[in-house]
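Hey, can you fold this one?
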Amino acid sequence: MAQNTEFKALSPEEKRVIIDKGTEAPFSGDLLKEKREGTFVCRQCGTPLFYSADKFESGCGWPSFDDAIPGRVLELPDADGRRTEILCANCRGHLGHVFRGERFTPKNTRHCVNSISMDFLPGSVERNATAVFAGGCFWGVEYYLQQIEGVASVVSGYTGGRTKNPGYAEVSRGNSGHYEAVEVRYDPDKVNYETLAKTFFEIHDPTQANGQGPDIGKQYRSAVFYHNEEEKSVAEKLIADLKAKGYRVVTRILPLDIFYPAEDYHQDYYFRKGTLPYCHGYVKRF
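Sure. Predicted structure:
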């Protein structure tokens, strides 16, 4: 990362927090409720620190992020001997503290940051690619794909049907045409689409028609929803490989239309519940 040596002049309150390592009052920061897409940058030097996609509501009173932009946030033992301080890696401005093991999100990390240490730049952030798979109950597919290094998040939802803005009740009745599916956000520099697709075929039974495990119904069918011809070709190749090994694959390959995120209570289901999927498991097939 190129070093930015042009630092902006700070107000007395900004200096108290950023330079003197103070803390703003909880629930007082102007970025606490910021929900637009964009990038959070260091207020002193402008270095990008966090993406909006990694921000979550922790209830602690300060903006919380479960990930930081690689190489942009420095962690050091805090002067109190108990916590870990986080600083801008470029200007060493104080940001806040990082905590792990609280189980707020699957990444199990909370960067607790003072609003006054950051500025927000709204706008589209092209960081991750997405992939969409359906393989039975989305809880289990979500759980296993979340474990892959390079996966930023997995969202449970609905796609492939004709009903606009469907809800769980509609999809469960089986007449909406939608599949229970997941949208995987991933970093192409850390994991490729083929690895995700292979894992998908190994965490559910691609030979079971009209359901998955004990979950029977059209909404539980197996499918790969592709964004482009490259993803389509990868899926076709993997299915051909499986058929060559004797698997009677019934997984459909379909163009992606609209992906509708499911209700909040479906997200990170097994992570929040602290149990394992009942109808999914890993079986090596490649």
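The helical segments are 12-18, 138-145, 168-172, 193-203, 229-244, 269-273. Let me know if you want another pass with a different chain boundary.
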